[in-house]
Amino acid sequence: MTVTSRRPVLADLVRRILVAVFAVLQIVVSVLTETGATHESIGAVARQYATPLLAADWAFAIWVPIYVGFLGYAVYQALPGQRGRQLHREIGWWLAFSAVLNIGWVLAFGSGWVPLAELLIVMLLVALAVVFGRLSRQPAESVLERVVLRGTVALYTGWVSFAIALATAATGAWMGLPASGALAAIAAVVVLLAVSVIASWVVLAGTAVIGYSVAAVWAAAGIALNDPPAAVVVAGAIAIVVIIASTTRRLTTAGNPMRAAWG
Known about the structure:
globular, 75% helix
């Protein structure tokens, strides 16, 4: 059942507009950056600070469903039956903020301001984690909500959970830390396994875990298949197995498998 309250409709209107504006703006900024119209592409900058944790170019295609889903949510939250819904009041501002942070991250990283980009992506993960956690408190009210909201947030959070490791590695290379060799490979293995453990914990405790797991496995595969040192390939494979096993356990032991899987 949709829950509404009597907060001023002006705040709801402002929130809806901001979510929609930033949903579009983050796509525009990303496209302009990737085409080199405003800044150097994200991939080009990432290759300047390449480490064993650099993902293959194809892995970044995950931004397409994330952006499309975010845009879908912008439309969904503006539907007549959704405008005064308490759920959107609890997460809408955070999602608008996440879009601002993403825009800032893209511009900062594309400009070569790697430490600033690192700070912004950490903040982005925090914002997404807040939304992901709040969505876990109540089930979705429709299939549409599961697709454009629960699925999008889960996919986005899962990807950023691993992307933050890539960003941290790039920051280390920017600072002059070893970006290749034995030390870099050992650090990459430790970070990759640590992130996979955290991701598994999220899967075992959260809802809409299919989207989160798909993004996490996709990211781990992107790293493992980008010709890193053999130890990183093995760590990536272990991460994939651990995440899939955690997802399987979550779905087979949940009291409500549908909610655990899709929100």
